[in-house]
């Protein structure tokens, strides 16, 4: 995951959700030495880091099955934080129940609607009715408090550990490659690291001239820079000012990427680099 020169001071990393949420699992996987701090909203995560109460923020940006995580792209440019790493976390869904329950006892399973949808085959096979809960870890907590052997939760193994539930069935998701990409963010950027493969993330707005986006992208093609992601989104409810979010391979100091960014700058009226960081080895997996 690259060097950890982010200037850790509190030894804490902030995430959105309840203890045992998949973002909590991501913190444990990517930064096992840090204390994970739960926050209510994505904005709270960012504010916790900005106030210096945590060193890093763990923010999910996209899921391989469900695409973009809502709102995150709007928070990134204005957050005042910088991307210092990425983490790809496999989303393993488990059937959790109170101690002593058997799979044959389970009549209902509670979880976030997205997870219920991802385990349709298993739940149908076992005749388990789906109940929509607020989130995965919260559902695990409710199941633990109820103590009803006929009700289970779909959540991470970490949630089972935290709320004292037993795993009745592991990795029951329909798609075995379901993965969420997280960005790890800090107050200060870190442009010093050099790995085998570096990523650069930036946002930009094209100037209001004909074929501006086509011309802006030309520099990446002619300089042989691989763009792994390009997404558009509207800013401030304005239909004409479209902002773009992009991930490219390389470091801004690399001659090819430097030339491509210089060309991009000519066709944009706003360009901001959000982070330069080592590619997660699981990016190509």
Keyword list:
six-stranded mixed sheet; single chain; D-Maltodextrin-Binding Protein, domain 2; five-stranded mixed sheet; Alpha-Beta Plaits; elongated; alpha/beta; disordered N terminus
Element order: H for helix, E for strand? EHEHEEHEEEHHEHEHEEEHEEHE
The helix fraction, in percent, is 25-40%
Q: Tally the beta strands.
A: 15
Shape: elongated
The CATH class of the largest domain, by name, is: Alpha Beta
Q: In percent terms, what proportion of residues is strand? A: 25-35%
Architecture of the largest domain in CATH?
3-Layer(aba) Sandwich
CATH superfamily of the largest domain: Periplasmic binding protein-like II
State the low-pLDDT regions, or none: 1-6
Enzyme class: lyase
Keywords: Amino-acid biosynthesis, Aromatic amino acid biosynthesis, Lyase, Phenylalanine biosynthesis
Catalytic activity: prephenate + H(+) = 3-phenylpyruvate + CO2 + H2O
Domain Prephenate dehydratase: 12-187
């Amino acid at each position: 995951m690259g060097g950890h020169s982010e200037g850790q001071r509190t030894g804490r990393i902030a995430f959105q959700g309840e203890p045992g949420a998949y973002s909590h699992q991501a913190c444990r996987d990517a930064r096992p030495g840090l204390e994970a701090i739960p926050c209510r909203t994505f904005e709270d995560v960012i504010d916790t880091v900005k106030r210096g109460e945590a060193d890093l923020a763990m923010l999910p940006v996209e899921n391989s099955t469900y695409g973009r995580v809502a709102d995150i792209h709007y928070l990134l440019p204005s957050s005042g934080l910088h991307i210092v790493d990425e983490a790809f976390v496999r989303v393993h869904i488990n059937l959790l129940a109170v101690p002593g329950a058997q799979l044959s006892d389970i009549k209902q399973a509670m979880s976030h609607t997205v997870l219920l949808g991802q385990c349709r085959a298993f739940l149908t096979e076992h005749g388990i009715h789906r109940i929509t809960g607020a989130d995965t870890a919260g559902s695990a907590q409710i199941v633990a408090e109820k103590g009803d052997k006929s009700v289970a939760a779909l959540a991470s193994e970490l949630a089972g550990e935290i709320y004292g539930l037993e795993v009745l069935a592991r990795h029951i998701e329909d798609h075995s490659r379901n993965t969420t990409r997280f960005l790890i963010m800090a107050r200060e950027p870190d442009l010093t690291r050099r790995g085998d493969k570096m990523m650069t993330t930036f946002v930009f707005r094209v100037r209001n001239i004909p074929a501006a986006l086509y011309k802006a992208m030309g520099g990446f093609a002619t300089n042989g820079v691989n763009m792994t992601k390009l997404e558009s989104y509207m800013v401030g409810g304005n239909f004409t000012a479209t902002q773009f979010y992009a991930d490219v391979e390389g470091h801004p100091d690399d001659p090819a990427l430097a030339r491509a960014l210089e060309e991009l700058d000519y066709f944009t009226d706003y360009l901001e680099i959000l982070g330069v960081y080592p590619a997660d080895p699981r990016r190509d997996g």
